[in-house]
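Dear support,

Our group has been running a series of protein-ligand predictions, and this particular one with FE2/S2 (inorganic) cluster is the one our PI (initials K.S.) wants archived with full inputs and outputs. We had some confusion internally about which version of the output was final, so please treat the block below as the authoritative record. The input we submitted was:
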Amino acid sequence: MPLRSDEWYGGRDRNGFIHRAWMRRGVPDDAFGGRPQIAIANTASDLTPCNSHLNEVADSVRQGVWAAGGIPLNLPVVSLGETNVRPTAMLWRNMAAMATEEMLRANPIDGVVLLGGCDKTIPSLLMAAASVDLPAVVVPGGPMLTGTFRGSPLGCGTDVWKLSEEVRAGTMAGADFLRSESSMIRSRGHCNTMGTASTMGLLAEALGTTLPGIAGTPAADSRLLARAHETGRLAVAMVEQDRTPSRLLSAGSFHNAIVALAALGGSTNAVVHLLAIAGRLGVPLSLDDFDRIGADVPLLVDLQPAGRFLMEDLHRAGGLHAVLGQVRDLLDPAALTVTGRPLTDHLTDTDIWDPEVIRTREAPLRPNAGIAVLRGNLAPAGAIIKPAAASGRLLAHRGRALVFDSVEDLHARIDDPVLDVDADSVLVLRGCGPRGYPGMPEVANLPLPPKLLRAGVRDMVRICDGRMSGTAYGTVVLHVAPEAAAGGPLAKIRTGDVITLDVAARRIDVDLPDDELAAREPAPAMASALARPRRGWEQLYVNTVTGADTGADLDFLVGASGHAVARESH
Ligand code: FES
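Confirmed final output from the archive:
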């Protein structure tokens, strides 16, 4: 099969001379004669600490590509460090995806190995690969090893939220909290809870986009490098057999990812990422599919934030394949992987080695724990809640709204000792959707008022048009759509309105007659947030981003574009 890169290197004319000559930096003469050119899209960065080890992983991929007869090409791409990037890494996910897509298309590339880890990096890489539709395979960078503090495991993310709430409640000294800081990050790798990075690494495999068996391998485990080497070899074979995303990824692939998401108790952020990836491929996937496919899937993995253990434990207990083995009958047996064979064909080693960490189908942590999709007059286009991370007693609740117009408004008032709030109140934070913030930050698990924390309250119903960290927990209704800044009804509610949450009925409503809600004006703060002067990417983003219910991609990036480039300048 002719290679795409032959269009650059195959010519006997001036342009072929130019393309070859500048690439002769130590590669053999036959590097340009029909050998697959494999980009290694590498998100290694010192400013993305969860991915800083990926250069070593890339070296193993390179060796694998060489060993299979391909030519490896390091391609540093935009990297997003969740803990550093302001105002929120999600503002830049689509930019990273767009930049990677364009660089893959613009260069003489036949296939690509995608190296990601920290939350947005694997989603942006998969969105890019789906758009450019070149053979692509993911190497998830893997979670870090478990840290301990005073003899107890310390999960990154989840324990930060818990311990900081203990400090606010006055039950932990601030100095002890800071002492735990150096114990948390024990090794290279991404967060070790079932947060977004862990979830997206595992879902990349459930989708069929990784070497089978690699996802969840700790970053410090030498087996990750061995699998990275194999992935390099696989990428060459994928090019030779033209295994492109559009030929591999189907509705069944996303079905399998949603089953895995539910069984793992994965991050709510996977919803916007899977919707965006499917949108790039033209695979029909809706918010309701998450409820339809996932709601009755049992929660099998006892990992923080929903449970007790961490990613190192999951790997030791049998990993993703042991989990998928328990729900094999729920998987689509026709959905393919990068090997060219179905996902279910690869589920041959599914023993559970620690039934405390991975439960059997007969003894799940919860019988049905997928993400629930809510609708109602507060969220006509949908909202989501993760029942596995919520308090069971709050899943049916009525309470008075306490409304905050922005994160700044929240921070200015939440600690006020005379704040008119009680344990039954419903905390509402708006203006945090894709357009409103902009970038849909992870603020939906808003902190509880200190006076209630001191009284022993540890969870309240919270509603937001933003996202929640995958490591967070609580009874949080999030991704409310349409968002307040786009004119959604969330913009119209007022402190004191009564809100009803009924997860069993899949409803979220404000107790107001339709005509009264329709007649209300949106809060002025929503319009003024959009009117702020902007430039560059932020302006493009605010003008074109879609709602959370469709993946918060830019409207003009939905749908694959392919890899053809019609013109060149030489
Ligand atoms: Fe990178 Fe959590 S901060 S995965």
